[in-house]
Design brief:
With about 500 residues, this protein is an alpha/beta fold. The chain has three domains: about 5-170, 3-Layer(aba) Sandwich (Rossmann fold), CATH 3.40.50.980; about 220-390, ANL, N-terminal domain (Rossmann fold, 3-Layer(aba) Sandwich); about 395-490, 2-Layer Sandwich (GMP Synthetase, Chain A, domain 3). The chain has 13 helices and 26 strands. The strands form seven sheets. It has a five-stranded mixed beta sheet, with helices on both faces. The protein has a five-stranded mixed beta sheet with strand order 12-13-14-15-16. Strand 3, helix 3 (about 65-75) and strand 4 (about 80-85) form a beta-alpha-beta unit. The longest helix is centred in the N-terminal third of the chain and has 17 residues, at about 30-45. It starts with a helix and ends in a 20-residue tail after the last strand.
Length: about 500
């Protein structure tokens, strides 16, 4: 089954059920969404898009972006969602590598997308009421891609492009397990601020919602004020990263509340960054709900592990694998040893490979078919996975391994710290631990106090050599801290 068939089935079974609403004012039932998909598919065909062609979507979250995902599927094409806030050179690099037949821009919801559209001479698509613009490009004959639903580029600006090929089965698997473990029903309203150009928003929100017949409240950019209002407005399920929750808790306190003043929210999960026990306790007290913690990656179609607690607890693991997913640890990998190893994954969410990059594909798969994640983890006595960090982010200080999440968890527990990020900085031939702390202007912590706080919680070789306090840490659209941008703050 292709993903547009899933949408069509929902539209047939529940045509008047709410599907989504967004900041552009689109309020669509499943029938509305499906009709828009059919109209967009016809426009793509008129623009020359054929089976196996790629459709580049330079986007921020909005209803028409969701429709474009399913429209590309309907014509047999492959969608490439790409964050509109990337530079012109980044867009050009993806175009050169993927040779799409057309580039589409969510120009009505994003000034950056509008600027890219202007640069490429794009014109409005009528099926999306002018909210999308498109520019035909010179594609080339493609290799067979009939099983691929989307290609997600994970590369930075200095690396060779790596486009993760996710099949229709991958997307349905990822959305299906997310639906099942979260027990999503048609009565649920999901908050859709996680970028749909990334796998978390695409699979765990969009696909999970459509597979379950739920609805999505879509936001193009994270704002604690907007999230606060959405929760007051009836959102029932929130998938997030810890940085989003930290900012929401800080904003809510500014509104005069110590806990969240809503009753409709029934489920909250966190991923993409570690938790510590004290912070988790604060978050669960704030929401009045258990905070589920998960682990996933683009190459695994988001979901790999997730906790499924019935009540509040002190478990800071990422739980056990989703149904249909297997994990193992390679303790001989870099950074491994003892009970720590590189996490290996197999199962229904594992990608087909990297588009036009067989070398990278071969490197990421073991001879017996496991996929290397590049993440370090350990399993506790109950079989729950604990993430120790990226193998490439491992800090080797004075010959000792320092795992950044452990240092971050210690500092995050300080009452004046909103969030923290730790990286290694080379100095005189050794890698030093450097911590970047975000704090409120009216509640600025003293560096000496932070050092004393860390000393009570960390062994000497794990303590930061430098602590930099800032008002705002550089972050992605999800709120996830961009560690590559941290050295510029020194």
């Amino acid at each position: 089954m292709r993903i547009h068939d899933v949408l069509a089935a929902q539209a047939k079974a529940h045509p008047q059920a709410p599907a989504l609403n967004d900041s552009l004012g689109f309020v669509w039932t499943y029938s509305d969404l499906n009709q828009t998909v059919e109209a967009l598919a016809l426009e793509l065909t008129d623009l020359g898009v054929q089976r196996n062609d790629r459709v580049l979507l330079v986007m921020e979250n909005c209803g028409p972006a969701v429709a474009m995902l399913f429209a590309a599927s309907k014509v047999g094409a492959v969608l490439i969602p790409f964050n509109a806030r990337q530079l012109k050179a980044d867009v050009a690099r993806v175009i050169e590598h993927s040779t799409p037949a057309v580039a589409v821009f969510t120009s009505a919801v994003s000034k950056e997308a509008a600027e890219h559209a202007k640069d490429m001479g794009a014109t409005p698509l009528t099926a999306a009421q002018g909210s999308l613009q498109a520019a035909p490009l010179a594609s080339d004959p493609a290799e067979e891609l009939c099983d691929v639903g989307t290609i997600l580029y994970t590369t930075g600006t200095t690396a060779a492009p790596k486009g993760v090929m996710l099949t229709h089965d991958n997307l349905c698997f990822g959305g299906g397990v997310s639906r099942d473990v979260r027990k999503i029903t048609p009565a649920d309203v999901l908050y859709g601020v996680l970028p749909m150009s990334h796998v978390f928003g695409l699979a765990s929100v969009v696909m999970a919602s459509v597979l379950s017949g739920a609805s999505i409240r879509i936001e193009p950019r994270f704002s604690p004020a907007n999230l606060y209002q959405a929760l007051l407005g009836g959102v029932t399920l929130l998938s997030s990263v810890p940085q989003m929750l930290a900012q929401l808790m800080h904003y809510t306190r500014e509104q005069g509340h110590e806990t969240l003043p809503v009753e409709t929210l029934r489920y909250i999960s966190s991923g993409a960054a570690p938790l510590d026990i004290d912070w988790k306790r604060k978050a669960e007290g704030f929401f009045g709900l258990p905070l589920q913690n998960g682990y996933g990656m683009t190459e695994g179609t988001a979901g790999i592990c997730l906790t499924q607690h019935e009540g509040r607890n002190d478990d800071i693991s990422v739980g056990q694998p989703f149904p249909g997913v297997q994990i193992a640890l390679d303790k001989d990998a870099p950074g491994g040893g003892g009970d720590i190893g590189e996490i290996l994954v197999a199962g229904g969410g594992v990608m087909q490979g990297y588009f036009r990059n067989p070398e990278a594909t071969d490197q990421v798969f073991t001879a017996d078919g496991w996929m290397r994640t590049g993440d370090l983890g350990r399993l506790d006595a109950g079989g729950n996975l604990h993430i120790m960090g990226r193998s490439k982010e491992l800090i080797i200080h004075g010959g000792f391994n320092v795992y950044p999440p452990e240092v971050e968890a210690a500092l995050n527990d300080h009452p004046q710290v909103i969030q923290c990020a730790v990286i290694g900085i080379m100095d005189a031939g050794d890698e030093k631990v450097c911590a970047f702390v975000e704090a409120a202007r009216n509640d600025w912590p003293e560096e000496a106090d932070l050092r004393s706080f860390a000393a009570d919680r960390l062994a000497g070789y794990k303590r930061p050599s430098r602590i930099v306090v800032v008002e705002k840490l550089p972050a992605a659209p999800t709120g996830k801290i961009l560690k590559t941008a941290l050295p510029a703050l020194l």
